[in-house]
Amino acid sequence: MVIGTISALLFAFVLFYGWPKFREAPFYQIVCCLTITDSLHLLLQWLIVYPSLFGLVPEGSFLDWLQNSVVGQNGLDFTDQALFVFVTLITLNRFAVFIAQPLLILFTKRTTPITILVSLLLLILLCFFREKAQSGKHFDETQMMFSHQTQESTGENTIQTVMAVIQYTMPAVNLVCYVFIYLKLRKQRSESISASKSSDRGLLIQAFIESCLLELMRIIDMIPQPADDPTGMSLVSMLINTLKTISSVVNHTCNSLFFLTTNNTVKGVLRSLPCFQNCSHPSKRRPPSVSSVNVSKITLTSKHKNSENS
């Protein structure tokens, strides 16, 4: 949790510092939204889940109000859902650059904000109708999660099933897209350029890890509480709830860590921060130009550069 918060805040600061250059590439507009989602989720974890874990929520306090507010009741779940949306949009952007160029119409400087907005509106509608079919949502301090007292089976089950199917299939679809990207890059690379092949493998490995983590989060989230433990105080229930929290935090942590450690453009901006410049290169204080958008350690060809920056 601490590592995730530090990495998310650091990556957000890097994006802010280098935004005059980052905004030239629509890809980073999606990355920015993903980073905001991760930061909000981790913030809500600190304000809602962890204080309850240590009994630090006095009745009538701000934290108690937050747990019972609309933001508190829906924030954690919504940011989890938004994570899937933005990771999928990043995958579609990369797939459009390398494989399906006609899809680049969705990821130009003008259309990328529209694509993001439409995706979020669809997600909000799905979450709204799902919550409307449920009632009595409250934060259970014993289980460290929000739960519903009652459910209307017809509407809730239909929307819940649709969202579950989408969330289970998206990680697999994302991984398939990255496999096609990997094969396309391998075909274009010269066999003698081992560094490029290593970068290609790194992209595929990163995509595989992200897809597995997302899929694991959905599987853990669907594990029901034991029927003979309605209070959620048994060891099995506490283990299940702890795994749900950990899987959610890990998924909202890995994105910023991957970008900070594998993306050459992000690492270049990070090294140009004043605190790093004072330690190593005092004369270089300007963030590097993002003339070519390096996506997960890949050096794009000129054709790909023009496509992604369009």
TrEMBL record:
It comes from the Eukaryota. Residues 12-260 form the 7TM GPCR serpentine receptor class x (Srx) domain. Residues 288-297 have a biased composition (Low complexity). This is 7TM GPCR serpentine receptor class x (Srx) domain-containing protein. InterPro entries: 7TM_GPCR_serpentine_rcpt_Srx. Residues 281-310 are annotated as: Disordered. It holds the Pfam family 7TM_GPCR_Srx. The chain crosses the membrane at residues 6-22, 83-107, 114-131, 165-183. Keywords: Membrane, Transmembrane, Transmembrane helix.
